[in-house]
């Protein structure tokens, strides 16, 4: 369903899983009942779910929401709340679009359902530092989700209403699902870098560089939240800063591209994208950048998802 | 001295190595019973370079037996999978994504039971012992021959898998049980799949081990017997009976390591031109480049770490279709080449016949292919060359020329250089690179699981993991003084508190040679 | 024209410096250095051609190092110098980038102190041509002599002789470290931070000419004291002497701190002598002051005990101690790090509280990354008290180590004061008054007394009191509310709390 022309009754429900995709989610697999349970619980809170929107198109969550929509026999919006993958819920679009993420329903790996907030008071949690009305709700939910993830199996389903379908265009980042699937097909079929070039050109993206991973410093090691790796070949030296996602690329020390642009690190042979934790020393990679998908509130988006939101002290650079 | 043996689909190769020198080489056709081929190859070695059987320190065998059994869905045990997980994971039960013919071959049955742990090692729920007994009894009645047990986060805490093995051992004392935590790493489905594959190969593994043991002993060799593993290291034959899965795809690693040793080239592409297929891989600094994506084996997703190899369906036994256009493969006469090929008096035009006609090889009776049309021979060779060039090119990650090392019996079919790639190097003993790779193998120990690291204890935890890997290598037969950590990585798990870190350490060492010389040196 | 090679020429540096990216235009002999600049990691100063950037500290903005290398190249700056203690940060992608871009990156084997020492020496080297024009250079060199003098005193004497006035050296807003014969004290206002250049006529009718300088985080002042009616020329002369003298003094202090251990062991030796009372007090105090170890005046001792040895902890602690808004001393001692906060006069209670708060912040900051406990002793004056207070602080740190992570901070002040006051409560006149004070509680029952005592003992923590009493914290809170009502006391008031506490202690073992 195109979010810009959606006129149906009812609300769009955001669905996704918060937690660690590589570890816990690949071991303690979902039972499959989590998403329906979440939507059912939301219904009991008065949410009339008529469409599903992924929390984030990136990583596991993009597909998870599509699967959930199929399970629930609901349409899925060609949109998400992040335009990419983001680590913190208060970076997601409702947090700066005046839409509260509360009440939210969480379902953990044991199938236990939790409702966060929103029972009696419609008012947002007060927070003097918040500019938009619901940023504080986002922060509040983020902290609770984080605690739940730690206390339960390492991941938790998160769901909440993002408002009526007729007004959803003001909240979401549109057209990211089809864009992602288009790129998925392009990358799966890619045989060479030159074969990729026309697609990059068409969207204003570019190849930042290629070569082998010559050094790597994992995020989280030695307490640093941000890690990095370098890519070197005969040409310029690339340095990619990363946390769970790739955040910035410097070419020979000059910042060339930063979040919220989409930074992709591809296996140089198969052109399949690699996750930050899959980067290994001596691996051959290609680093590409694509312009970000933008919501209507683009300034707020760039601010919330730019380098500063990840604790990096420089301005956003978009391709 | 060591003996390396490679049992391939068409040929059984053997080498006798003294240190890093190849002193004798033998090549026989693979026989249906395997043993006869090995016996013949060992006799050939003895004839070429008489040796005292007591001087043999170790025999290393690489075999595609297990992989072939899986690919052909043949000789597999009736296998059940039990997963300890509930209430989690029910959406994707065991055997999800398995090809139907394999499920049928295994008479697959999957069972979910309460159990499992969280990443912290905390229990999800108690093990359902009564339920497990009931399942065990049902499986016994159904004639199940082998059982795979997996438990959520068993690499972090294996108590439930161990307990399940005890319970099943009481109910079904004769049915072997494979435990996932000993086989795979984090990633439940992939680990479970590997465990099921392992379970399905257990009966065959016992047969193969007995056969290998028998033939080697029959030759008077009392040295310990090892099998090559997927990563190019070896495992002793007793252990293989419990973990056949870890040896089932040793071919690529062996041929690439063998190619590196024989050619002395450390950065190159390697083409292993066999009887039915040709495998292309890349060597960097003497080590095979590993695949970054998950590996599918016979259509089953696993998370083995294997060399990044692509196979093309061209081998010495490939059928040549006269066209036009002339095409080599994908059909093949396989190990029947020695009966069906023209040069051996058969009636099928194969790639080998083309090579002999072109003067690139001297096998069989050359006069039997003299009648072949020159253009046909030329076109067939060009087809093979261009398809190899395409394959090597698709593996390349950097522009420029690089050498291609050709190994395997069929590598005579490769041209002097591959267009758009570089020169083709064919080292001495190229035909037996696999066996050489097996003979020079080391032993390894690996740790890969999630550790909870208390603040300030990162270094200590890493040291513990390293020690564990070293201990495992030594337990697997490495000489303690030679063990070194060759690969390690610690990846903090995103989104979780900083303490949860996945640590992977691999230690490798030289085989410890226990000199158990036979009292009398028997020269046959 | 001075080159990097010249600056690195002395064997001490040559052996310790590794120039990455050396070759081509980055070869040390080809790199021209016109200025040595100290840069704090993460900073964004504009660079100029010829700048050699000596980088202190680390930053969580890891990319900054790469950006710096790039800026060095783009600006034509001479290069970057870092110490091996920070190699983990600077030696990664930035080093690779330096190699690629042909930027000279000097990795100096050692700590930040070595960097400082290098910078000080390099600056002297770079200024040398201009200094030679100055008529005071000779004196400076004479003072310098062949070897580094053991104390700043003879150097100050040289300066003094040059201008015919007294010269002194002190810590900014802190104690006086050294001075020539005629100076006994320097007024606080002369030791305060100020804009360089202006002379100050202080309350004591003297004219003070001063030059501030920094070594590490420590700020010092070198000053001359002239008669109030000194001619303008004499004031100018004094100004030049202190300005150039400060370069020397900075170098002297940097050398002093050359290696943390050397300084640490020297400080420890002096401290041991001071505590043992074996050396003559006056010479000892001067030596201690030279080592940046003020023994006189008021102090608040503390002790930091890491659970396991942590390499480079000294630097971490020095860094964390910057939180404290006062002069601090830190030295390795007794398997941990001992130190104290220095006060020039008796600190007020409010000031003490502020400093203790700062120390607690130091603990919190450090404990985030390191398993460590911290004890704080009582404030006091003089060497003897310092010894006692350090021991007390260490005991407190040991006590703290038994607590839960993140709460390993204990102030011995409470223990010590209680001990003192308890002895007083034994005295005859106190008891009747105490009993009178607590009389209203008698109606409530004995558990109320115990509750109040436990509550006060645990510094007003209901949770801890509940643990001691084996009851629920809500019960404790309820009882305390009732006690407040019955006694009509304000437990938020320190004085009322103390009175109650003492009264409870005094009557504890007596029938009520």
From TrEMBL, chain A:
Domain S-Me-THD N-terminal span(s) in chain numbering: 11-116
InterPro entries: S-Me-THD-like_C, S-Me-THD_C_sf, S-Me-THD_N, S-Me-THD_N_sf
Residue ranges constituting the S-Me-THD-like C-terminal domain according to the UniProt record: 139-316
Name of this protein: DUF917 family protein
Organism of this sequence: Sediminivirga luteola
TrEMBL record, chain B:
Gene for this chain: hyuA
InterPro entries registered for this protein in UniProt: ATPase_NBD, Hydant_A_N, Hydantoinase_A, Oxoprolinase-like
Pfam entry (one): Hydantoinase_A
Alphabetical list of PANTHER family matching this protein: 5-OXOPROLINASE RELATED, HYDANTOINASE_OXOPROLINASE
Domain Hydantoinase/oxoprolinase N-terminal residues, every copy: 2-169
Protein name: Hydantoinase
Domain Hydantoinase A/oxoprolinase, chain residue ranges per copy: 191-388
Signal peptide coordinates: none
Gene Ontology molecular function: hydrolase activity
Organism of this sequence: Sediminivirga luteola
Highest taxon of the lineage: Bacteria
From TrEMBL, chain C:
Stretches of the chain forming a coiled coil according to its record: none
Domain PucR C-terminal helix-turn-helix stretches: 449-506
Residue spans crossing the bilayer: none
Pfam family for this entry, one: GGDEF_2
Top-level taxon in the UniProt lineage: Bacteria
InterPro entries: CdaR-like_regulators (IPR051448), CdaR_GGDEF (IPR041522), PucR_C-HTH_dom (IPR025736), PucR_C-HTH_sf (IPR042070), RNA_pol_sigma_r3/r4-like (IPR013324)
Residue span(s) of domain CdaR GGDEF-like: 277-399
Similarity field: Belongs to the CdaR family.
PANTHER family xrefs: CARBOHYDRATE DIACID REGULATOR (PTHR33744), PUCR FAMILY TRANSCRIPTIONAL REGULATOR (PTHR33744:SF7)
Name the record gives this protein: PucR family transcriptional regulator
Top-level taxonomy: Bacteria, Bacillati, Actinomycetota, Actinomycetes, Micrococcales
